[in-house]
Write a structure and sequence with these properties.
Layout (H helix, E strand, L loop, with lengths): L34 E2 L1 H14 L5 E9 L4 E9 L10 E2 L3 E2 L7 H5 L2 E5 L5 E5 L4 H5 L1 H4 L4 H7 L1 H26 L11 H10 L1 E4 L4
Parallel strand pairs: 3-8
Antiparallel strand pairs: 1-3, 2-3, 4-5, 6-7
Bound molecules: iron/sulfur cluster (2 copies).
The site of one iron/sulfur cluster has 12 residues, from helix 3.
Length: 206
């Protein structure tokens, strides 16, 4: 198929909402990360309570603020156990929170890849089934082609990227104002103790 004809169309297979079935393909430390901002978690908790379903999330991207002895939470992630998939995923109909699903799910199969400590870029997630099927055609695509192939998802990925940039800026602003101090070098032992003992502070931006 010519690249110019290629248009992303979700296969509704649910792989992106589930733990990999063949765990042998992944090492034992593999963690599936679907990032969730604190305000997204609030919204999902409300829906889960209304539907009486057991939503579980865990802190994911966190920084230790050594000035206030607090753990700053930027994102959480879904716990996919024990069902092996997101609690909002229904194998018969797919995502049941389609209208309000998190940024990461709206943008998928586009994701944000870290290029250095402060910068991220939009990339294609190769674990998507559709990407796998078109892997050879997609291997060499540049950002303009990605924009055309994933027209709707690209807009969502740009919004996702903007939100991340705002969060990074907020952290830097708080540091510049000496409201927080993020440890750039910290031993894993100290960090583990802090994770257990320090209070939490969610960082939220609109
Ligand atoms: S919120 Fe919807 S799209 Fe996102 S992981 Fe859950 S079921 Fe899948
Ligand atoms: S893995 Fe890809 S094709 Fe399958 S449901 Fe998710 S986004 Fe769609």
């Amino acid at each position: 198929m010519e690249l110019t004809e290629l248009k992303y169309e979700c296969l509704k297979c649910g792989i992106c909402c589930s733990l990999p079935k063949n765990r042998r393909c992944y090492n034992s430390n593999y963690i599936k990360r679907i990032p969730l901002y604190p305000e997204e978690v609030d919204r999902l908790i409300k829906i889960a309570e209304e539907r009486q379903i057991p939503l579980k999330v865990k802190e994911d991207l966190v920084f230790p603020d050594i000035l206030n002895k607090k753990i700053l939470i930027l994102t959480y992630r879904f716990i996919l156990e024990p069902f092996g998939h997101c609690v909002f995923y229904d194998p018969k109909i797919g995502c049941t929170v389609h209208e309000t699903k998190p940024f990461a799910c709206q943008a998928y199969p586009l994701a944000l890849k870290r290029i250095d400590a402060f910068n991220l870029e939009i990339s294609i997630d190769s674990t998507c089934n559709w990407i796998d099927k078109h892997y050879n055609a997609l291997k060499e695509v540049d950002i303009n082609r990605i924009r055309n192939i994933f027209s709707e998802e690209f807009k969502k990925a740009e919004a996702f990227l903007r939100k991340n940039k705002k969060l990074q800026l907020e952290i830097r602003k708080m540091e510049a104002e000496k409201k927080i101090e993020i440890a750039r070098q910290i031993s894993s032992n100290y960090f583990s103790k802090a994770l257990k003992n320090w209070d939490r502070n969610e960082i939220r931006v609109n």
